[in-house]
Design a protein that fits this description.
Shape: elongated
Order of helices and strands: EEEEHEEHH
CATH class of the domain at 4-94: Mainly Beta
Number of strands: 6
Distance between the termini: 63 Å
CATH architecture of the domain at 4-94: Beta Barrel
Largest sheet: 5 strands, mixed, barrel
Number of helices: 3
Strand order of the largest sheet: 1-3-4-6-5
Helix content: 10-25%
Strand content: 35-45%
CATH superfamily of the domain at 4-94: Nucleic acid-binding proteins
């Protein structure tokens, strides 16, 4: 039987990329999921390249959601039996957007070379382009 889970929380520490004994790369992380005052710790394993790259761009404390297969094991700690929850994630969704790549303009930034336009002209640019053409003038029949 396979159970799938969706876990939402914050990274407890930065994710790490590792290599399996078979030579395949994977990413591991620990998520702290809060349930009121209590916290639950989830180990996350990612074998997908795209989901692993998405996880690696995050750092300690970043919020995220992961979806995947649930694996539950027990372990003994000081004579007490505890439960270890692991999610073998198929999908990783950071709860903040990836930074946009900025393209460098050829020949420097032309907007810095132009003088600042008065406020009346800046408002006018919403309707009129830099060349003075009316952006809203078209052949609509109404």
């Amino acid at each position: 039987m396979t159970a799938h889970v969706l876990v939402t929380g914050a990274l407890f520490r930065a994710p790490e990329q590792r290599t399996s004994k078979a030579g395949k790369p994977f990413v591991t992380a620990t998520i702290k999921a809060k349930d009121g005052d209590a916290a639950q710790w989830w180990k996350v394993l990612v074998f997908s390249e795209s989901a692993g790259a998405e996880l690696l761009r995050l750092s300690d404390g970043d919020a995220l959601s992961v979806q995947g297969t649930l694996r539950v094991e027990t372990y003994d700690k000081g004579g007490e039996t505890k439960i270890s929850c692991t999610c073998i994630a198929d999908a990783v969704l950071p709860l903040r957007a990836a930074p946009k790549e900025r393209k460098a303009k050829a020949g420097g930034d032309a907007s810095r070379d132009r003088p600042e336009k008065p406020a009346a002209d800046r408002d006018r640019l919403d309707r009129y382009g830099d060349d003075g053409t009316d952006r809203f003038h078209d052949d609509m029949p109404f």
